[in-house]
Design a protein that fits this description.
heterodimer, A: 284 residues, Rossmann fold, two-stranded antiparallel ribbon, 34% helix, B: 74 residues, two-stranded antiparallel sheet, 30% strand, globular
Chain lengths: 284, 74
């Protein structure tokens, strides 16, 4: 399709309504991610959440190290790069220096759950008014498929060629549940990006994760189960199915803590599998 | 009729849209963009649900829903 034909096709005809369009927070640069990588979906959700109440002009993004190092290239918001693992520590400084800003970090499992675990947990425990988006794809993507703290038991990676073994390497880290146990955390949830329904649910949870920061309730945390077709050696459609079949049973979806939730522990509609919603963690 | 528009130069050929479409009307087109990725096309009646666009990691899809058709169906 040439440029003129595309321009014509992008104009709604009579009786037509555009029901899906991009937004000005996400810029037009093509991402460097591999085909089928769900980082792009996560980026779009963040941009929509920042656009709909027009938070972008006062938003500051703190980028991590990993595949999403260049996150700041894709959003029309201010951003800076943190040393490996230290995004939450940098974000702490940013938010304290600019209390009116909306500050978020976007980190992978190697960055947040391995090298940066101390900084992430302590920022959360202090209840810093920041939002952290944690992309869990059970593998180190950028460096070529080594084992991550979140790697599933039995999963083969370049550093666990016979599969991750509980006795030798320990089990996968459940960061959303750990975060929910910390006093300073106002919202902790886990969603997935493998299907349309899960993506729509993830957007609602993401909005909550930003709202708790804006309402000064504490730290907002959202874990997103994602795929890595390249390092899983799968095509993108099979990789998305793998998230549903192999990851979700190990990493249950749900809202583990929401300080603003009703006292009855009424589950938020943020995640559509509700067995682990609010409940005990929110009452604690 | 509702329709799907592909921004072909953004497409990376991952086919997540093909798998997400509840009507099964999307398919690889046999054409390739300048990056060398095979782009998708619409081949059938679209309901305008935008599931394909929700799953597209590269924001390469726009969806136009026929408002009249929806009112007629309701």
């Amino acid at each position: 399709m040439d440029a003129h034909a595309l321009e014509a096709a992008l104009r709604p005809a009579d009786g037509e309504k555009c029901v899906f369009d991009t937004n000005p927070v996400l810029n037009e640069r093509l991402t460097h991610y591999c085909p089928g990588c769900l980082h792009g979906v996560a980026h779009r959700l963040v941009s929509e959440v920042l656009h709909e109440p027009d938070l972008a002009p006062r938003t500051i993004l703190v980028a991590a190290v990993g595949c999403a190092t260049f996150t700041y290239d894709y959003f029309n918001v201010d951003g800076l790069e943190a040393p490996h693992g230290r995004a939450c520590a940098v974000a702490t400084g940013v938010r304290r220096a600019r209390p009116e800003a909306v500050v978020f970090t976007y980190q992978g499992d190697g960055d947040m759950a391995a090298i940066g675990l101390a900084e992430s947990l302590h920022a959360a425990n202090r209840g810093e008014r920041i939002t952290s988006i944690f992309i869990n794809n059970t593998v180190y993507g950028m460096t070529g498929g080594q084992m991550a703290p979140t790697t599933l038991l039995g999963q083969k990676t370049t550093t666990t060629p016979e599969g991750r073994c509980l006795a030798r390497e320990g089990g996968p880290v459940h960061l959303a549940e750990i975060m929910a146990g910390l006093e300073g955390v106002a919202f902790a949830a886990r969603c997935a990006l493998d299907s349309v329904a899960h993506v729509r649910a993830a957007k609602k949870a993401l909005r909550r994760a930003f709202e708790v920061q804006i309402q000064n309730l504490g730290f907002g945390f959202l874990e997103l189960l994602s795929s890595c077709p390249t390092n899983w050696h799968m095509d993108p459609v099979t990789a998305a199915r793998h998230v549903a079949e192999s990851m979700i049973p190990v990493f249950p979806l749900g809202v583990f803590k929401d300080k603003a939730a009703a006292p009855s522990g009424k589950p938020s509609d943020a995640a559509n599998e509700s067995e682990h919603t609010a409940g005990g963690a929110a009452d604690a | 009729m509702s329709r799907v528009v592909f921004l072909e130069e953004r497409c990376k050929g991952c086919r997540l849209c093909v798998a997400a479409c509840p009507c099964g009307i999307l398919r690889p087109s046999g054409r390739f963009n300048r990056h060398g990725y095979e782009v998708m096309e619409q081949a059938g009646t679209c309901s305008g649900c935008a599931s394909c666009a929700v799953m597209c990691p590269d924001v390469a899809i726009r969806v136009f829903r026929s408002v009249k058709a929806k009112e007629g169906a309701a």
